Fold this sequence. Notes:
Layout: E1 6-9, E2 16-24, H1 28-36, E3 46-51, E4 57-66, E5 77-84, H2 86-97, E6 102-103, H3 108-115, H4 121-132, H5 136-146, H6 149-172, H7 178-182, H8 185-213, E7 215-221, H9 227-235, E8 253-259, E9 262-268, H10 278-292, E10 296-302, E11 319-325, E12 335-337, E13 342-345, H11 354-364, H12 379-400, H13 405-423, H14 429-437
Parallel strand pairs: 1-6, 7-9, 7-10, 10-11, 11-13
Antiparallel strand pairs: 1-2, 2-5, 3-4, 4-5, 8-9, 12-13
The structure holds guanosine-5'-triphosphate (GTP) and magnesium ion.
Amino acid sequence: MNNDTIVAIATPSGQGGVGIIRLSGPKSAEIAKLISGSCPAPRYAQYGDFKDQSNSIIDSGLTLYFKKPASFTGEDVIEFHAHGGPVVLDILLKEILKHDVRPARAGEFSERAFLNDKIDLTQAEAIADLIAADSEQAARAASRSMQGEFSAVIHKLVEELIQLRVHVESALDFPEEEIDFLADDAIAEKLVSVKQKIAEVKKSAQQGRLLKEGMTVVIAGKPNAGKSSLLNQLAGQDTAIVTDIPGTTRDTLREHIQIDGLPLHIIDTAGLRDSDDVVEQEGVKRARQMIENADRILFVVDINDDEKSIQETLPKDIGVTTVFNKIDTVNRTSEITEAEQAAIYLSAKTGEGIELLKQHLKKCMGYKQKTEGQFIARRRHLDAIDIAEEHLNFADKNLHELKAGELLAEELRFAQQALSSITGEFSSDDLLGRIFSDFCIGK
Length: 443
Ligand SMILES: Nc1nc2c(ncn2[C@@H]2O[C@H](COP(=O)(O)OP(=O)(O)OP(=O)(O)O)[C@@H](O)[C@H]2O)c(=O)[nH]1
Ligand SMILES: [Mg+2]
C-alpha cells in the first residue's frame, strides 16, 4: 500500500466547461477539507468554493469523495470539479501541492488500482486503449477487455492448465506408477484440448492487436505489376513514383491509412525479380523482409501476365490476397472471391474495384458488424501466448517422445506462468513500469 498521496489534472489540457483534479492516497480527505472547507460524505457531490491558504477564492465547483476501498484506485480518492481553464486548474493544483502531496506519474492511478487488486493488467491496459481508440470498433473491443472479458478467457485457460498440472504432479508423487501415468490418455487428451484453446485465443488476440496497432499490408509482386499504382489508390495520393519502366520502386514506401477508422499500414515494395543492379538487389532484399513481417500480403499480378511462380516463394503462414490488376486493359469488371484463396480483380489505374479491396481488408482485420466476443490485445499478450504455446509443444514432446514426467510438469508450469503474465499475476516491476509509463497523466 502506498503511503503518499498523489494528484493530477485528470481532464485534457485546454479550455472546457469542467476540469477535474484527482487525488489518491491517505491525505485526500484532509486536502478536501483544506480546499473546500469540508470533506463531503462519500459519493455525495458537495458544491462550494475552493480556497487557498489565505482564504481567497480560487474557483467554485463540486467536491467528490470516494472512500477506500470503494474507489478506482482502492485508496481514498477526492475529485475537485472546477472550471476547465488551464490557468485556474494550475492555481488549484499548486495550492494542493503545498500540502505534502506529490504530482502523479503517468498511469500512476491505474497502477495503484492494479496493485490494490481493483483491476488486473489487461484491464488496466484496456483503459489506456479505450482512451486512445480511434475507431468505434477499437473502442468497443477495449471496453470489453476493460470489463474483464479477455481476462476471463485467460483465467479459464489457466484453470485448465492447473487441472492438468494437478493430474500430472499428483501422479509424479507416486513414482512407481509413472509409466502408467505417461501412457494415460486423459493427460494426452487434456493437453490437446488446452493447446486447441490457446490456438483459438491466439487468433482472437491477433485480431484484437490489429484493431489497436493496425494491420500491416505489404504490396508485393513482379516489377510493373502496378504495386505503386495500388499504393497511391489506397492512400488517395501520389506517394509513389509510377512509370512503365520495370524496377521503378527500389525502396520500401509506407503509408498510414484508415478504412472507416481502422488503422492500416500499407507498404509498397520493389518488384520481385533477379537483378544485376546492386540497388535493385537491395530493394528486393528489403521487400522480402517486409513480406516476412506482414499481417497480410497483397500479391499484385498483371492480368495480362499469368506467370505466378513467385507467388510460391511467399511465406506460407501469412494470408495472401491475389490482386489481378489492369482489368481496364481486358475489359473486365471488378470482382472478388473470398474463398480459401482470396482474389480480387481491379484496376489500380482507374480505381475500379478499390472499394471492394478496402472492404476486403476491413474483413481481414476481423471487422464485424457485431463486435461481440472481440477484445483488444497488445503485442505483449501475443508474445506471452506464443511462449505458452512453445512450452506446451515441449510438454507434448516430453509426454509422447521422451516420456519424461518431471520435464512435462515443468513445461506445464512455464506455460501457466506465461499465460498468467498476461493478467499480471506473474509480472516483474520492470514490465509494470513499461506498461504504466505509456499512460497519460491523471489516468
Ligand atoms: N492500364 C493500366 N495500367 C496500369 C494499371 N496499374 C498500373 N498500370 C501501369 O503499369 C505501369 C507500372 O505501374 P507501377 O505502379 O509503377 O508498377 P510497380 O509494380 O510499382 O512497378 P515496379 O515499381 O517497377 O516494381 C505504369 O505504367 C502504370 O501506369 C492498371 O490498372 N491499368
Ligand atoms: Mg513500384
